Amino acid sequence: SWPRALSESVDYEAELGVVIGAAAKDVSTEDALDHVWGYTVVNDITARDIQFAEAQWSRCKSFDGFSPTGPVVVTADEIADPQDLHIWTVVDGHMVQDASTGQMVRPVSALISHLSRSLTLRPGTLISTGSPGGAGYSRDPQIFLRDRSTVTVGIDGIGELTTHCRILD
Q1: Exposed, middle or buried: residue 159 (CB in 10 Å: 0-12, 13-18, 19+)?
Q2: Taking the domains of the chain in order of start, what are their residue ranges?
Q3: Greater confidence, 58 or 36?
Q4: Rounded to an integer, what is the distance from CA 52 to the centroid of its chain?
């Protein structure tokens, strides 16, 4: 839930969540997946009007109730290839995202390697990998979450996460 005064342009994004299990610093792409403990589902909820009004994107994704995650973590040994997973979103009964993690801008291994060049990724760190096309702001016409919208994001082989939205007056 969020106050109406906060934003009326709240959006969904299905994302693969990567949970680090072993510390990673300056790791190669070849070794990066050895540092993964597991994978989960993330709904990267974003207040788009705030995102585009401010130079820093942290606030638009960090309100109470944004970025629901889970409800489970599947261990890395259960996922043969994190770049071969079906990822999808259904908003109010309509399929709005339907893609593969193979379409990601950076593969999971490259993302871990890249991030580990700047900081040590500690066990328990959650990396949200980015969303496939189909987010509400990029559609024509745009689709934003409404009061009582139901959003289900899922990744085959991991699970699905349903969020029930409330806009507070």
Answers
A1: middle
A2: 2-162
A3: 36
A4: 19
